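Weekly modeling sync, notes
Attendees: S.R. (lead), two postdocs, one rotation student

Agenda item 3: backlog of single-chain predictions. S.R. asked that every request posted to the team notebook include the full sequence so nobody has to chase files. The rotation student volunteered to paste the first one in as an example of the format we agreed on. Action items at the bottom.

Example entry:
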Amino acid sequence: MIEFRDVNYAIGDKQILKHVSFRIPAGEPRIIVGHSGSGKSTILRLILGLACPTSGEIIIDGQNICGLEEKRLREIRRQIGMVFQDGALFDSMTVGENVGYYLLEHTEMKLDEIEDNVRQMLGFVGISDEYLDRLPDELSGGMQRRVAIGRALLSTNPKIMLYDEPTTGLDPQMTTNIISLINRLMEHRHVTSIIVTHQIADAFKIGDRFIFIDAGEVAFDGDVNGLRDSKDPRVVEFLGPFRKSIAHVHKIDFV
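Predicted structure, as returned to the notebook:
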């Protein structure tokens, strides 16, 4: 379970988040939407413990992570997988080395065992063995993100997955592939998933529970029907042409 309790966050005189509160039960997805610069990605940084709020509490599995000792914070981070918009792969390492990095550095597993685990994970995220020895810059943006998901899963076996704009900049087919993979992870591994995006059409294909952040504030927290029926002018403006079509949106089939 993840819970924000009246969280405020500021950098100097600039207020980034204002009285943000929400609760995400274990195993459920939540889509965080909003305009660029609204504070969405800051929420992910706070969940990872990369920054502490100015005030308020962030609860993960019943524990307030704000102010924890670094050792305990690292233990909590090991339950969390993070996929950045650019993939954040190591440029000088092959695909296989990227995915197996954690096992190589932090376990006593033999090299052949690590390679077997890497191959299995790449198969799960839809990357064939022919890409095992390629460098990240030889892959498309969508394939890099799939590799990044595989690395996160193999590194931490996470209970929580965080995605920062996972479909931004991808072509339609690769967008479909990434959405399918996120849905498959939620379906088969019951991973609590938080997806930050401003791609409304993509968001509707992943889940039906939304948090809308506007200028650092929670303007909406609820299901797709509540989002459609909201009279809040901030929500109405953000949804724009998608508002009338929400009722007809269905999640894509798992592949």
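Discussion: group reviewed the output briefly. The beta strands are 2-11, 14-24, 29-33, 55-60, 63-64, 80-83, 160-164, 192-197, 209-214, 217-223.
Action items: rotation student to repeat for the remaining queue; S.R. to check formatting next week.
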